[in-house]
# Entry
Amino acid sequence: MKTISIKGVESNVLASRETGLSFRVAIEATLQDNPGEDVLLDFSAVRNATQSCIDEMIGVLVLREGPGVLSRLRFHSCCPTVQHLIRFVVEDRIEFRQRSAN
Amino acid sequence: MCVNDMEEYYIIKMPRRFDADHLPEVLDQLSRRPSESSLCFDLSDTTFATPSLMTFVCSVSTSLRGTRKSIRCPTNSDVTQYLQRMDFFRMGGIEIPEEFQRHPADGRFVELQKVNVGESSRQNCDKLAQDLAITIAGDPDYLKTIEFLEFCIGELLNNVRQHAMENGFVCAQYYRKTDTVGLSISDAGIGILASLKGNPKYHELDSDAEALKLSLEYNVTGKPPTTLPYRQTQTQNSGNGLFFLSRLVAKSCSQLALCSGTCLLEQTHDRPPTTVDTSHFQGTFVELIIKRAKIPDYEKAMEEIRKERFGKMAAQPIRFG
# Structure
């Protein structure tokens, strides 16, 4: 299993979309370069996050790849608030994909 | 910008204490300025300088690039000193000798700061949001306040950086007496209506009031989401940042004011958003007043917002642990 350490820029807060984008690019590359292998996202250095940042990192990934991508991801040491945000953006983007398909 | 030079200037008389409620009156004065005339913000009556005053003056000054501008200082020297300490004059390129000793913010205020936007900007909001929240939380050990503020500030900074196209300004103050945080972020960008029109779904939208109300709703964005291939390095926008902010305001004893174009929207915890027509404001102005003691349990609030929106949706298999 490959590991990506998630952390804010000089901060334990993931606030900006740009931060989310940089981790999404890393996650996409790791998934692509390691087919069949899971990716562990280590959130132990994250205390708080915005919806926008988590959406850019995880929501857009689900939007592009579909919910199946979640089976290759493991979210490690996520604080409860970040867990709620991850659930929110996943549900939001899955709903959008369903609406787009109809 | 210069100071205390009022000759040949069109004068905007600022009230004793400027907050969002004064926007209609001040924007009305601004709208009557003869084009090409120089502009003076007259703060002589100001006895209480709010973050909103500082961000508003700076963003209007930014939007009137090429116009000569001046500021008439408050007659109350304490207020002038406070504005100096908050870097208000310095931000306008005015250097006034400081006849006081600068003390650290010490959990009470955040000086007026620029929020840089544009692709060339490398400013990252992570540290800025955290630093701002810690600085104004009133008590560095009060994690609930800090996390609530980090989220609100982070979403507002993202909003400026996504839509402003012009640098913004942020400023905040914690008021110990009322246990309240006043926060303002303002920019001279394209505004919310023009931003939403970037999405074909809202091409027909032609009312600032409608745009402001929509911006607080779920999944409203000027960047239409797409499942099609797109530039990997381009950010997407789900249009939920202000939705979350609005829901958090509703769950706390907070007040949110949003002004863009020709409309001022105000929302409090016990009242749905109401709008008032104003004269034109170039950009987006946000004022957030937060009663620290009334901040809800942050984690619970986030869970509630998610359940309110997706309560009936089947849980997705997400592996935490």
In short: The mean pLDDT of chain B is 88. Residues 2-95+106-226+236-309 of chain B form a domain with the Heat Shock Protein 90 fold (CATH 3.30.565.10). The radius of gyration of chain B is 20 Å.
